[in-house]
């Protein structure tokens, strides 16, 4: 005697066991994939979670230069502090400018100082001052109105400034600007060259107008 299969009622899954298992398997694999992707995103978020929680100074060491020209120097951290030095334009042989600290650690230095022409002891050129930073890099000249050289951690600009007769510091006729950061932009040498070179030029352009230089002074570039 032949038996016929009982008809499948509408909505019944009895006749579709394989399809059901297949769909379930796909769902499980898809769920596992989503969990894996989410885990990667969470880990990436944690790894790159460092961010700048303080405001970039509106003026750099008292100089209005435009934040876009120096914001890259201020990296991740929570608290920003500033240590001020002598006022810009000071003709006495002293260090001018300021230093910024992030979470208590030095971050950005913008200093101006006097030097003797062709000094045999202290740096008197951008290249010599960069070497004083103990970097193995070779300084690169930045083209502009001033004598400027850069490296991945900053730049130094220099200008000649003749003093009046009778000045007790008359031998100190070189003024240098040293801009540096403890977080070099070494991931992109060309960007570092442009950012620091331009910034050193901008700082010098602002400061040189505050110096009481005699006629005949000018760029050493």
Question: SSE layout and pairings?
Answer:
Blueprint: H1 17-47, E1 80-84, E2 96-102, E3 105-115, H2 126-131, E4 140-142, E5 147-151, E6 154-160, E7 174-181, H3 189-208, E8 218-219
Brief overview:
This protein has 221 residues and is α+β, with helices and mostly antiparallel strands.
| Structural class assignment | alpha+beta
Radius of gyration: 32 Å
Helix and strand element order: HEEEHEEEEHE
Round the mean pLDDT to the nearest integer and report it: 83
Beta-strand percent range: 15-25%
Largest sheet composition: 8 strands, antiparallel
Strand segment count? 8
Q: Count every helix, treating DSSP H or I runs of 4 or more residues as helices.
A: 3
N- to C-terminal separation? 111 Å
- Poorly predicted parts: 1-24, 33-48
Helix content: 25-40%
Shape: globular
Report what the structure shows.
It is a single chain. The chain is an alpha+beta fold and 221 residues long. It is built from 3 helices and 8 strands, in the order αβββαββββαβ. Strands 1, 2, 3, 4, 5, 6, 7 and 8 form an 8-stranded antiparallel β-sheet that branches. The longest helix has 31 residues. The protein is globular and about 55 Å long. The termini are far apart. The N terminus is likely disordered.
Feature tags:
26% helix, 221 residues, alpha+beta, disordered N terminus, 3 helices, eight-stranded antiparallel sheet
């Amino acid at each position: 005697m032949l038996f016929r299969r009982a008809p499948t009622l509408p909505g019944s899954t009895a006749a579709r066991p394989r399809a059901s298992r297949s769909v379930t398997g796909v769902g499980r694999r898809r769920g596992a994939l989503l969990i894996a992707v989410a885990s990667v995103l969470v880990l990436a978020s944690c790894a790159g979670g460092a961010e700048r929680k303080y405001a970039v100074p509106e003026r750099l060491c008292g100089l209005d230069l435009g934040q876009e020209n120096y914001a890259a120097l201020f990296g991740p951290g929570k608290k920003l502090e500033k240590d001020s030095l002598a006022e810009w334009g000071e003709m006495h042989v002293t260090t001018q400018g300021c230093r910024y600290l992030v979470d208590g650690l030095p971050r950005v230095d913008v200093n101006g100082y006097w030097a003797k022409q062709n000094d045999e002891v202290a740096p008197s050129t951008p290249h010599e001052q960069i070497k004083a930073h103990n970097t193995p890099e070779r300084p690169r000249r930045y083209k502009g109105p001033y004598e400027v050289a850069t490296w991945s951690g900053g730049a130094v600009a220099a200008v000649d400034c003749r003093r009046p007769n009778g000045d007790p510091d008359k031998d100190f006729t070189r003024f240098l600007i040293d801009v540096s950061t403890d977080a070099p932009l070494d991931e992109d040498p060309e960007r570092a060259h442009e950012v620091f070179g331009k910034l050193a030029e901008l700082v010098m352009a602002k400061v040189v107008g505050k110096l009481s230089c005699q006629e005949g002074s000018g760029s050493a570039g």
